[in-house]
Amino acid sequence: MVREEDKPAPYKYKLVKHNVIKFAYMHLAALYGLYLCFTSAKWATIIWSLFLLEAAKIGITAGAHRLWCHKAYKAKLPLQIILLIFNSIAFMNTATYWVRDHRLHHKYSDTDADPHNSKRGFFFSQIGWLFVRKHPEVLEKGKTIYMEDIYKDPLLRFQKKYAFFVIGLWAYVIPTVVPMYFWGESFSNSWHIATMLRHVLTINLIFLVNSIGHKWGNRPFDKNIKAVENLSVSLLTTGECFHNYHHVFPYDYKASELGNTKFNAATLFINFFAWIGWAYDLKVIPDNVIIARSQRTGDGRNLWGWGDKDQTEEEIKNVELIYCKSN
Q1: What domain count does the chain have?
Q2: 75 φ/ψ sector (left φ>0, alpha ψ -120 to 50, else beta)
Q3: Is 214 a domain residue?
Q4: CB 37 within 8 A of CB 190
Q5: Which residue, of 3, 146, 179, 252, has the greatest Cβ tally within 10 A?
Q6: Does residue 259 fall inside a structural domain?
Q7: For range 140-148, the mean pLDDT
């Protein structure tokens, strides 16, 4: 049974027909690409496609999400360039547009101002929101989102200004040409596997955080919001679906609690570049603050068994108050 508060206000969406046609083709091409993986593709093509898929996910999770959207850490220019290339491989619009939509999602989560409002159903929040015109609330509230830091970033300005060439090169041309040139793969296999199948998987895996990440899982940090923790989705998205935690503490560079790195490839990626000095000023939330918040507003079902020792209500308030004052 759907709770009354989870029912969205009635609204008739207008289809964006060219997007429907484009995504229909992409998904059919991806299915054909999957068939080709088992019938005619060379192993090198499949390995190349998997590499591109992981790079694309990192370009969204460690790049557009944690670095540019939330400023959860800082990166030196070489790492920024790597992340911009990986983000372009992902092609989930430019990083600039991705950041705007995601900041909007955090500020107005699960409302009509949320671009992929989960209250409108699983399909809508997964991919259906790309098939329709944006809700008027998304357009109106989008004007209030702070974006000056993004507009001033020279690399992001470059990607946005030359998106056709930059994204076209990294998302379509290079993935297709490399298998053909280096190991004699056919154009059909290269296009349908390394480009279409890889692209469709990137989109749908990342958007599981929008759909499943707001529906099925536990809420150990705030039981009053829809965002959940889902380990399976986290494994598929380089560590992005410790989502209840992330909505409570969006500026933690790990996007997950208590130093968790075992199921968080994006965190391991950032940690490696921090080790060589290309990533720095990594933001973390103190463990006692995390536990205090969990005990105050969580549902009591954490994934790792931490924080079982209860603190008094006064102790919880004091921990959070000290943390807020110091930040």
Answers
A1: 1
A2: beta
A3: no
A4: no
A5: 179
A6: no
A7: 95
Max Cα separation, the chain? 68
| Interatomic CA distance for residues 181 and 190, integer angstroms | 10
327 within domain boundaries: no
Q: What single-letter DSSP state applies at residue 312?
A: -
Q: Is the pLDDT reported for residue 249 higher than 90?
A: yes
The contacts of residue 247 (CB under 8 Å, 6+ apart) are: 106, 109, 222, 225, 227
Q: Token pair for residue 163?
A: 């998106």
Instruction: List the beta bridge partners of residue 37.
Output: none
Tokens 């557009």 -> residue: 64
What gap in Å lies between CA 238 and CA 61, rounded to an integer?
7
Domain range for 30? 4-206
Compute the distance between CA of residue 119 and CA of residue 107 in angstroms, rounded to an integer: 16
The model's pTM is 0.91
In the chain the first and final C-alpha atoms are separated, in Å, by 42
Q: Over the stretch 39-49, which tens digit does the pLDDT of each residue have?
A: 999 999 999 99
Distances (CA, A) of 51 to 14, 58, 67, 236: 37, 11, 21, 14
**Phi, psi for 159 (deg, rounded to 5):** -60, -40
pLDDT 10s digits, 292-326: 888 889 888 776 655 544 544 554 454 444 444 43
d(CA 109, CA 201): 25
Domain assignment present for residue 305? The answer is no
- The SS3 call for residue 19 is helix
Residue 298 has φ and ψ, to the nearest 5°, of -80, 170
